Amino acid sequence: MAENVNTIGVLTSGGDAPGMNAAIRAVVRTALVNGKKVKGIMRGYHGMLEEKIIDMEASSVSDIIQRGGTILGTARCEEFTTKEGQEKGAAICKKHGIDGLVVIGGDGSFRGAQKLSHLGINTIGVPGTIDLDIACTEFTIGFDTAVNTAMEAIDKIRDTSTSHDRCSIIEVMGRHAGYIALWCGIANGAEDILLPERYNYDEQRIINHIIDSRKKGKKHHIIVNAEGIGHSSSMAKRIEAATGMETRATILGHMQRGGNPTCKDRVYATIMGSYAVDLLCQGKSNRVVAYKEGEYVDFEIDEALAMKKDISTYQYNVCRILSR
Prior knowledge:
Mean pLDDT: 95
Strand content: 15-25%
Helix content: 40-55%
Order of helices and strands: EHEHEHEHEHEHEHEHEHEEHH
Radius of gyration: 22 Å
Structural class: alpha/beta
Number of strands: 11
Strand order of the largest sheet: 3-2-1-4-5-10-11
């Protein structure tokens, strides 16, 4: 059990994700209701090491729940991956009276939280990443907004692809995880989806699929390509040369990180942020908030980081069957 927490810090780390502001708002206001002081740490662990720390009140988080990005800012911090950086961070937290910390981010952010916990700072992680690649939870803040943004963009690309009898390769984000690509493949009715977890780099199969589809009278072809595979532009050139079908690549990029969060991202992020503060108030530390089987739960950070996650074989097969 952790010692009683009086001042709670909150930071966002790694890639930004729509819904992070909703989580920040929930952390600040839930902490204040519980009689705790709140400090916002600007630009993640990088800002912590630079002591960019501000006092936060209820008014500090007014009118932010609908905004994308993160009002606290975020950054990646190589220094914090070192023992010296972690010890410096813990000392800075103690200097500013921060004895509880909510870290909103992904696996890398949780590793930092884990180290701070071992150094005497009570920490709770909240999963915030558009990649949906945190194994302990079925939901991560930002995924729902990002996948809807990508879906809408692909719908628009399909319109013009159909008009020009074109093959379009649309590259979506997800780093080494194919969840955005899988969901868009299903939602957009893509003819092919390329996922890091499943793709065997058999480009000839895709070429054969395009040729067979054209023989059946199909005039366009949509390929959703995950960022973890990449090389969409060079792939487009090879496919066009092999099939004779005009092929264009579109990389959606960071537009998937922006925009107003969906209702789901706002609600889930809010509950997770409040849950994180409740855990700190209960004397818990070194935990990660998660959503599993319809319930909000928590895991030891060590346990959460050890978990593995894979693409649903059934969902992947459904997408492939329906694309024929």
